[in-house]
Design goal:
- The chain is α+β, with helices and mostly antiparallel strands and 1195 residues long.
- Among the domains are: 52 residues, no CATH class; 198 residues, Sandwich (Jelly Rolls), CATH 2.60.120; 101 residues, Alpha-Beta Plaits, CATH 3.30.70; 77 residues; 112 residues, no CATH class; 66 residues, no CATH class.
- The protein has 34 helices and 25 strands.
- The strands form 11 sheets. A 4-stranded antiparallel sheet has the order 21-22-20-23. Strands 5-17-7 form a 3-stranded antiparallel sheet. The chain has a two-stranded antiparallel ribbon with strand order 1-2.
- Helix 3 packs antiparallel against helix 22 and helix 17 runs parallel beside helix 23.
- The longest helix has 40 residues.
- The chain is elongated, with a radius of gyration of 40 Å.
């Protein structure tokens, strides 16, 4: 082994001015007393490694122009409707991928602005038409600020709903419709014990904590009846089901013998002719039908009066039907209590149905200025559907237009740029071999002969020549070992440099301090040297094993031609038209009898060399494993959100929710209701929530919690029910917010996990890896943010009957057992608000992370300067450390595309019912554009040359957002309980079959399980037609433009070849003439370059020097070279942009990872390895360590 180049402690120190890392710059940075580093060198390197421009008037000490930051107003280009190019010259030098990304953000920003304008009419009606008022806004702001978002959705219009109230004789009964007017009433005045209940009685309620029945069924067996389950004698219900009126969880005391389901017959509303009053129905009809709310004191001594109404069908007790006749009656008129138990207390129970056929606009935010007091819900539905169809068409056509502009942009930029891939093809499969050098010469000779005899493509050549051939081999394990070794080498390099800097300070600092620091550095260097020796030993073992097995094989080759004509001829003679076409490949085109397959090569910096030997099926299996791991993470997210939902449901069960809030709830009403909750004589109405919310209209939240309630007038005992209610309410809202935060955190976790997992898929190119990462992160975050929240809160009641759904909940996993079977107003106020809040947080959260990262980086630099703004002070020991401190992070294009795609899909998915999301999307795209522009120009270092694959992948996904949106919009707008028509009301009143709520009550529910009648409702059928048309477009696109071409290529390759568009020649210069001058100079003096290539580099360099001499002797140049950016210089000189060679030693990323440029890795010659026989004698390669390192095969 060669000894490590660590300076001995006794060797004389060198002057900091002679440090090669300073690049000739004088030291101007260090401690306050001693300067041994160069901040001017840092600034010069930042100009090369960060997006910056060079000054034309200011120069540093070496005469180099000083780099300057681009202003934030720098034009980043845009897609335009005219044909004039609108490209950003600043972005074009960093690859077409960056140009397309910022143009994509601009298009999405303008798109969402148009969607905001198109959906504005619907948004205004949602806010105003749902009784939206400043008072409601103020209450929600005090009570729960995020709930204000619910005022901007369809849910604010509310829906047709059922009401129920029950009052003992002497009490007060109140009904209040959330929306619409009372259109149906079922009233029963009789003994309380036999008339049913509005809610679940105390003995039938479920346990607050577990949600299960408090009674345990007991098995009772008899010889005649067999075995049956009975509830215990303590009176608690033990069979879980839904209360027939309130539809809340309740426990029955018996099972129905016919269906074996919980029997709630004793809780259904029912009348008894021998124990009740027939006048009660007529009285309540007269007092309440056609009104938004009504209240009555229940007393047998009172006489009730009302008018006959032909519109609502109200009559007098005696049968009088003349309109406007004033009727009067008492509850005991036409009554019969002969079969009532003497001790039974009488009560009035009323079940009412509110119908919503119009939207009331007559409030303080009214639209009277345009002559609207109200609008038919069906008419508004037509407006809303029209706005939504316009939004979808706008979205779809703008995305299609953007994709076309992106293709034009790519063609324009690639036409003006020269890259190494313009000369290079990839030979996919190679014949078996032992001598890589011999195989190279065979490929060279074979292609030069075949292509020289081939027909002319664009220009005539005497002979096609191959400039270079580089191989990828099947030794990824070897490269991994070398990469691990490279990490240690880099760390050892830094340790030695720091040690050298310390030795240069000998005599300038205290001797004791110097010796102590020297010992610490010596230990670190020795530790790293030992680790390096272990890595070298691993490399020796690996080399010995594979040399014995002779298993090293080249799996692919990258063939670079001297002229563009050779590239085009190769692809023309060897078209990649499938396996069947290659079966008939002429023998003179084959190599060693093996059929050759060529395709255009990716960019040199795009190749992942260590993955080239992984076949398609291996990568497919890895992708499946990654998908399974992602599903596991999503399942964990589902469990966390589900647990938060269960806890929220537990709190709601404990404190209850009111079915409706009557007007004018007093403290006495609340006290009586709370006492009834304890006694169980009357079902609990949860009036405390009604009172406390009403108090918020005039009081602060704190003052509301201090409202006293006198529970005992004799003793003056007080209770603070509002404080108890506020505690439970805040807890439920906090749990909702925790669910939202968990979604955001899991999204961040998914992005980090998938970064690692996608690398395990072993993609052959970095671009395909980025595309895979974008797609997977987007799909995972979309499922976690949107689908999981919907699934957790959904149930199957719409598609199956409630008994079947209950059976599913008991027998299967607790999924699809949520509260919502449709997009109801409650869904919008619960799940919809959570989704909007999540998207608002997602709008800020990625940029908050970037800002915090930037502030942390600036704080590190500020601390390094000793808390001053003097940049000549630093705590760093080496120039490399100082450069790294002022080097920005990478610009992660994949993460940004994934984040914006997730936002766009979720926002547009639910925007039909929540149009405020369009405004959220507009600000999200606008903020992303400026935040990423700031990051690009001020923080991040120059990104790699991204190609257009990521933009094309994102653009291909966007049309599916319209498809999903149309599907969800159809379901939202077809909810007949929200958008109710007169025909719907008549159908409900005439519906056959009884309601579970009680006898004589129609089945007031939407037609469940029938999808076709729902999507073909008036107005909604337009959305259905649009959805079908769009599905056909997508299907035709997939079949005709994706699958059909591949099938045609497989079975009819000749026809495919005729249909293919021929490649246009760019007319670029010779490959060696296109290599930039700095690279040519480096290649000429590089000892690793072969003599043949060095000669061609010298010829190209001499030709360029002669041409420069001619230019200098002619007319004066119009521009100073120092005033021209690197991109302009390469474009004017027609040089290759990016990496000019497919040799791994020219790939800066691999050179840095493998530490090839380190003094500890001297002797590495990758070109030697490419040409040598895999069975060659190791001794021919020099010393043992040189042999170890020279095993670097071309990956």
């Amino acid at each position: 082994m060669q000894p490590l180049r660590s300076a001995a402690p006794g060797s004389p120190p060198t002057s900091p001015r002679h440090d090669p890392q300073l690049g000739g710059y004088p030291p101007d940075c260090g401690s306050r007393e001693l300067k041994y580093l160069s901040f001017a060198k840092v600034l010069h390197d930042r100009g090369r490694s960060h997006p910056m421009r060079y000054s034309t008037t200011e120069f540093d000490l070496l005469g180099n122009p000083k780099p300057q930051k681009y202003p934030m107003g720098t034009d980043f280009g845009a897609h335009a409707f005219h044909r004039l190019p609108t490209d950003s010259f600043v972005l074009s030098q960093y690859g077409v991928g960056m140009t397309l990304y910022f143009k994509y953000l601009k298009v999405m920003t303008w798109l969402f602005f148009l969607l905001v304008v198109l959906s504005a009419p619907a948004l205004v009606i949602y806010i105003v038409g749902g009784k939206g008022s400043l008072a409601e806004f103020r209450v929600l702001a005090k009570q729960n600020l995020p709930m204000i978002l619910g005022m901007t959705s369809i849910g604010h219009l509310r829906e047709s709903s059922s009401l129920c109230d029950q009052a003992l004789e002497g009490g007060t009964l109140a009904l209040s419709c959330p929306a619409g007017e009372i259109g149906f009433i079922k009233a029963v005045y009789s003994a309380q014990a036999g008339q049913g209940t509005c809610g679940c009685p105390e003995v039938n309620t479920v346990a607050a904590g577990s949600g299960k029945c408090r009674g345990k069924p007991e098995l009772s067996c008899s010889p005649s009846a067999g075995c049956t389950q009975l509830c215990p004698s303590d009176g608690y219900g033990c069979f879980l089901g839904l209360h027939p009126v309130s539809k809340w969880s309740c426990c029955a005391k018996s099972l129905d013998p016919a269906t074996n389901e919980p029997d709630f017959g004793d809780l259904r509303i029912r009348s008894n002719p021998a124990c009740g009053s027939e006048a009660a129905q007529t009285i309540v009809n007269g007092l309440c039908l056609g009104k938004k709310s009504c209240a009555m004191d229940v007393s047998e001594a009172l006489t009730y009066e009302w008018k006959v109404s032909e519109a609502y069908g109200t009559v007098c007790v005696d049968g009088e039907t003349t309109p406007e006749t004033v009727c009067s009656a008492k509850l005991n008129d036409k009554s019969d209590y002969s079969q009532c138990a003497d001790e039974s207390q009488r009560s009035l129970i009323v079940y009412a149905r509110c119908f919503t056929t119009r939207i009331d606009l007559s409030n303080e935010w009214s639209l009277k200025i345009v002559g609207w007091d109200s609008i038919s819900r069906q008419d508004f539905l037509g407006v809303a559907v029209g706005c939504d169809v316009a939004c979808s068409m706008c979205f779809f056509f703008i995305v299609i237009w953007m994709k076309r502009k992106e293709r034009e942009n790519v063609e324009r930029i690639t036409k003006d740029q020269i890259k190494a891939l313009d000369y290079t093809v990839q030979l996919v499969h190679l014949p078996r071999h032992k001598d890589v050098g011999k195989l190279r010469e065979e490929i060279r000779a074979h292609l030069e002969k075949v292509l020289s005899d081939a027909p002319q493509y664009a220009v005539e050549l005497d002979r096609v020549r191959v400039a270079d051939i580089q191989f990828g081999v099947n030794t990824s394990g070897h490269l991994e070992l070398l990469r691990n070794r490279g990490v240690v080498v880099r760390r050892l390099d830094v340790a030695l440099q720091r040690f050298g800097k310390l030795r240069a300070l000998e005599g300038r600092i205290a001797q004791r301090v110097f010796e102590r620091r020297c010992k610490r550095h010596e230990k670190r260097v020795a530790r790293l040297e030992a680790k390096l020796q272990r890595h070298n030993a691993r490399l020796e073992r690996w080399n010995a094993t594979h040399k014995k097995r002779q298993s090293i094989q080249a799996v692919t080759a990258f063939v670079t031609f001297e002229e563009e004509e050779g590239f085009h001829r190769c692809l023309a003679e060897y078209p990649d038209l499938g396996f069947i076409y290659r079966l008939f490949q002429p023998r003179h085109k084959r190599l060693r009898g093996k059929r050759l397959r060529f395709r255009p090569a990716p960019d040199p910096t795009d190749i992942v060399w260590e993955n080239l030997h992984y076949p398609y099926w291996s990568r497919l299996l890895r992708q499946l494993i990654v998908a399974l791991v992602t599903l596991a993470v999503l399942f964990a997210s589902f469990v966390l959100i589900f647990l938060a939902k269960l806890q929220k449901t537990k709190v709601e069960r404990e404190f209850g929710r009111p079915t409706s809030c009557p007007a004018g709830v007093t403290r006495e009403d609340v006290v009586q209701d709370e006492l009834a909750k304890t006694s169980g004589l009357v079902p609990y109405k949860a009036l405390v929530e009604c009172f406390c919310k009403a108090a918020l209209e005039t009081e602060s939240f704190r003052a509301m919690t201090k409202e006293p309630f006198v529970v005992d007038a004799a003793t003056g005992a007080q209770a603070f029910y509002c404080k108890t209610w506020a505690t439970s309410f805040v807890e439920t809202q906090l749990l909702s917010f925790v669910s939202v935060v968990m979604v955001v955190l899991v999204n961040v976790l998914l992005a980090r996990v998938l970064d690692v997992l996608v690398a395990m898929e072993k993609h052959h190119t970095a671009s395909s890896q980025v595309v895979s990462r974008v797609t997977k992160v987007f799909l995972a975050q979309f499922c976690n943010t949107a689908l999981l929240m919907v699934v957790i809160n959904a149930n199957l009641d719409y598609f199956v009957d409630q008994s079947a759904a209950a059976a599913f909940a008991r027998s299967a996993l607790p999924i699809l057992t949520g509260k919502y079977s449709d997009f109801t107003p409650a869904w919008y106020n619960d799940v919809g608000v959570a989704l909007m809040l999540t998207m608002i947080i997602n709008t800020f959260s990625p940029h908050v992370y970037a800002v915090l990262n930037y502030l942390a980086l600036e704080a590190r630099r500020f601390y390094d300067r000793g808390g001053s703004f003097d940049y000549s002070i630093t705590r760093q020991d080496t120039q490399r450390d100082l450069d790294a401190l002022y080097r920005g992070p990478r610009f992660d294009l994949a993460a940004r595309y994934a984040q914006t795609l997730t936002s766009i899909f979720i926002i547009y998915l639910f925007s039909a019912g929540m149009p405020l999301l369009h405004l959220v999307g507009f600000f999200a795209m606008l903020m992303t554009y400026w935040a990423d522009k700031f990051t690009f120009l001020r923080i991040a270092r120059s990104p790699p040359l991204y190609d257009s694959k990521v933009a094309a992948s994102a653009g291909s996904l966007l049309p599916y957002a319209v498809l999903l949106h149309s599907l969800v919009a159809m379901w939202m707008f077809s909810n007949e309980l929200i958008f109710q028509s007169s025909d719907d009301v008549a159908r409900e009143l005439d519906a056959a079959g009884a309601n579970d709520a009680g006898e004589g009550i129609p089945a007031f529910s939407a037609v469940h399980g029938e999808i076709w009648p729902r999507v073909t409702r008036p107005q909604v059928v337009v959305l259905f037609g649009f959805f079908v048309a769009f599905c056909l477009i997508v299907l035709v696109k997939i079949v005709l433009f994706e699958y059909f071409p591949s099938v045609l290529q497989s079975f009819c390759p000749l026809l495919t070849r005729l249909m293919q568009k021929s490649r246009a020649a760019k007319g670029i210069p010779n490959y060696f003439d296109a290599i930039p001058t700095p690279i040519l100079r480096d290649k000429v003096v590089d000892p690793r370059v072969s003599a043949t290539l060095r000669e061609k580099f010298l010829v190209a360099l001499d030709k360029r020097a002669a041409r420069q001499g001619e230019l200098s002797s002619g007319s004066p140049r119009r521009r100073n070279r120092r005033s021209v950016s690197a991109a302009e210089q390469y474009s004017d000189a027609r040089w290759i942009v990016g990496c000019a060679s497919y040799a791994i030693s020219d790939n800066k990323e691999y050179v840095d990872q493998l530490a090839i440029d380190s003094q500890l890795s001297e002797g590495i010659s990758i070109e030697e390895i490419l040409c040598r026989d895999v069975e060659s004698d190791p001794a021919a390669l020099g010393s043992s360590e040189t042999y170890l390192v020279s095993q670097l095969s071309v990956f």
